[in-house]
Write a sequence for this structure.
């Protein structure tokens, strides 16, 4: 389908809203009570450092709610205020933070049920209000809701929309979109729905596999059947229907899930640029490779702040954010890459009772560590993903203070 034309028609519909309802002042008090913190505001003004007894807490210079997340949450609150009696749905979590989503449930916002990995829209009726979350919704979901006569409130982050525009440019020029992302992540699913031909690569390893395949086709020679089969098996669930690597890797453009690790996205972009230059020659590079900067500023700021924080002397790191939050996971990866003892938790309640913590090691199931805090002076670094409210960070710090007194 012509996704550009569909978006244009949707944006002119009276049942579509992406600007909010002008109720910012009315919901400001509820947002402040639920998500803001005087302690965190004070720490931001005093060098991001707190000393209490034997405990020193060092906050990252940039952490927590980004502008896109604040916008999405505020629009969700405005939606309930604007539609006090209507049935309101959300196609997914508004953001990847359990406390924020629980607040919406308390406001009688319904979440589209998921069965076997598939969303069930059967209960959504004409006239219902449906919120599209910060990381967007697929074209197919929006089309379904539009045809059903729903009112849509679109909180998609503008940075995500920027990526959609990028893959649509790829499609216009008959380029394959190489999307650096997690194939099952809601944002990547939405982005791929706006693309034409696409291939999702998780990391530099997978990107290198794709580039090796491209170079194996140099001088018109077809790759061996075994290599082609291996390639198709690896990417069968990460590519557009009918994807043919011999046909669809001649013209490529790079895009990304906005929450991926900035440095890796940049490496992947350079890798494909070098590969296409080697394959087709410098003079024809622009005929075979397109590059647009789709790295989110907020993601970049939080990652840069994390790199600065892990350069300081720390005994351990606490990373706060939803376990399904991609940007939080990448902050955890940075700490681990520096060899820092690091703990990823989604809520303050993961700390205690006593000197214990329930955390999620990278790529593993929840684990319990006891004792958690060592004896003697302790320096703890803290950061949080872009979906984590200041109040959650506040609660974590207060638990650490109490625990350090024992």
């Amino acid at each position: 389908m012509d996704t550009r034309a569909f978006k244009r028609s949707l944006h002119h519909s009276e049942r579509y809203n992406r600007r909010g309802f002008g109720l910012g002042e009315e919901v400001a008090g509820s947002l402040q009570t639920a998500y803001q913190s005087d302690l965190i505001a004070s720490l931001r003004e005093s060098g991001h450092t707190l000393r209490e007894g034997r405990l020193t807490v060092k906050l990252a210079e940039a952490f927590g709610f980004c502008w896109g997340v604040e916008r999405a949450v505020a629009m969700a609150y405005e939606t309930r205020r604007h539609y006090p009696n209507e049935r309101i749905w959300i196609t997914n979590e508004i953001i990847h933070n359990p406390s924020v989503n629980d607040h919406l449930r308390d406001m009688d916002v319904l979440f589209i049920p998921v069965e076997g990995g598939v969303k069930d829209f059967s209960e959504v009726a004409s006239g219902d209000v449906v919120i599209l979350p910060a990381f967007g919704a697929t074209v197919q979901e929006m089309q379904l809701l539009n045809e059903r006569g729903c009112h849509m409130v679109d909180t998609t982050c503008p940075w995500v929309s920027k990526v959609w525009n990028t893959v649509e440019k790829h499609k216009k020029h008959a380029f394959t979109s190489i999307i650096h992302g997690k194939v099952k992540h809601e944002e990547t699913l939405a982005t791929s729905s706006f693309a034409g031909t696409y291939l999702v690569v998780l990391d530099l390893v997978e990107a290198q596999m794709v580039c090796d395949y491209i170079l194996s086709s140099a001088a018109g020679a077809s790759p061996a059947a075994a290599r082609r089969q291996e390639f198709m098996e690896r990417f069968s669930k990460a590519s557009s229907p009918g994807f043919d690597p011999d046909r669809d890797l001649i013209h490529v453009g790079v895009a990304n899930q906005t929450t991926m690790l900035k440095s890796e996205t940049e490496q992947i972009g350079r890798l494909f640029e070098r590969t296409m230059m080697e394959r087709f020659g410098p003079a024809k590079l622009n005929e075979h490779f397109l590059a647009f900067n789709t790295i989110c500023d907020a993601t970049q700021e939080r990652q840069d702040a994390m790199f600065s924080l892990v350069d300081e002397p720390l005994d351990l790191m606490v990373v706060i954010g939803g376990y399904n939050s991609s940007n939080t996971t990448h902050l955890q990866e940075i700490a681990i890459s520096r060899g820092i003892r690091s703990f990823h938790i989604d809520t303050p309640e993961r700390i205690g009772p006593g000197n214990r913590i329930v955390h999620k090691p990278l790529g593993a199931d929840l684990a319990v560590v006891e004792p958690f805090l060592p004896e003697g002076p302790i320096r703890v670094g803290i950061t949080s993903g872009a979906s984590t409210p200041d109040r959650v960070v506040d609660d974590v710090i207060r638990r650490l203070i109490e625990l350090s007194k024992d």
